[in-house]
Design goal:
By secondary structure, the protein is mostly helical. The protein is about 75% helix and about 0% strand. It has helices at about 1-5, 10-25, 30-40, 45-60, 60-75, 80-85.
Length: about 90
């Protein structure tokens, strides 16, 4: 994915899949960075907010995770509501 990103630095899917890989390898800092880049490129990407929230939560940033899940939910990601109910105070 890194090579794809070098060739196509605005390829949201490349950042997304690399973010998933980082997350799966418990490299939450780099996962957060990739999801943040997606949000910079497309601020209405609910999946990026949702997944960045997962990485932030694993990285110990519960408040940041809750903010991201709220944004994901406001953009139509209904799965984010379950995480909000489980991990966040309103």
């Amino acid at each position: 994915m890194t090579k794809v990103i070098e060739l196509y630095p605005k390829d949201v899917k490349a950042y997304f899949f690399r973010g998933i890989a980082y997350y799966n390898f418990q490299d939450y800092k780099n996962a957060i960075s990739d999801y943040t880049k997606i949000i910079e490129l497309n601020p209405k990407d609910a999946d990026a907010y949702y997944n960045r929230g997962l990485a932030k939560n694993e990285n110990g940033d519960n408040n940041g995770a809750c903010d991201d899940w709220r944004k994901a939910y406001s953009l139509g990601d209904l799965d984010a509501k379950d995480l909000l109910n489980k991990h966040c105070k309103y």
